[in-house]
Specification:
Layout lengths: L4 E6 L3 E6 L12 E6 L1 H12 L3 E4 L6 H13 L15 E5 L9 E4 L10 H5 L6 E7 L8 H14 L3 E5 L10 H11 L5 E5 H8 L6 E2 L9 E2 L3 H11 L3 E5 L5 E5 L4 E4 L12 H14 L4 H15 L12 H9 L6
Parallel strand pairs: 1-4, 1-7, 2-5, 7-8, 8-9, 9-12
Antiparallel strand pairs: 2-3, 5-6, 10-11, 12-13, 13-14
Helix pairs in contact: 1-8, 6-7, 8-9
Length: 337
Amino acid sequence: MSKTYDSLHMGRSSIDLYSNDVGSPFVNITSFAAYVGGSPTNISVGAHRLGLNTALLTGLGVDPVGDFILNFLNNEGVETKYSPRKPGHRTSAVVLGIEPPDKFPLVYYRDNCADIEMTIDDVLASPVRDCEVFQFAGTNLCKEPSRSATMFAAEVARQAGAKVVLDIDFRPDQWHDARAFGVTVRSAARLVDLVIGTVDEINAAMLTDTSQMSLTHSQVSDTKVAGDTASAIQQFLSMGPEIVIEKRGQHGARIHEKNGTVTEVPGFPVEIYNILGAGDAFGAGFIYGYVKGWSLYRSARLGNACGAIVVTKHGCANFMPTMPEIEAFVESYGGLD
């Protein structure tokens, strides 16, 4: 039997305040544009714009920021009725400076955060048994009750026949100890069919010695993790996932399968305006192809195209491309195949 939802996305949501003074140092910013953000939220929007029937499981405060996010998502057509309001907790916020090509100072405001308050009861009230793909973010696992709720959701979704997708989503300042990130992600790996992450995220998930990690939280590009990426990927594949997708920015993506097959998927070179949201756009594109039964190569190629478009834009969810926009964009590159 077919499922009601193509994909259910679980995790953080936020209001994203992006600098309008592109190229200016953070201390000189005079104004911000307000968008919707949060990795699973962005992916739910991106996948829906491409044509999937998506639902979102997040937590929102009883506050105007929660109203702002719900208004946008409802206008987009993402199903939000499974995203509860959490009295006494606040919807989170993100503030970003934009200094292309490689400096993007980022500050999270997630104290007393509503989406970390997602519970097992919230999962049971969601369509976790009624989706083709269940996708969650690694940040879900940083605190309780979201941690156990997410693990429970992955278990139930898999038992119901859904494919479980983990976007590693490593945000060092959301963890009390960076080593706890690796321990927790590794414990979740047995519940996952497919992993998506950058080289740094994949390495961080397998590290036990954080002396190899640079954790300067004010700038996304400062989170660098030394390690043997090939070995880290093999460790992931030995823990349960059938596929690990290595996001490689302008170089595209690399698909690693448990059977040893490695597939290079070229990207689409563009001029970078803002890197935030590109990885989420990739996830949306890949999940679309995955649900539709496309080859892994073509699914990742669509993901690369979505990411390439978003890095030329100002924000994340608000700028996710539609399929006609993708088709027009890839034409000059020879298409997706």
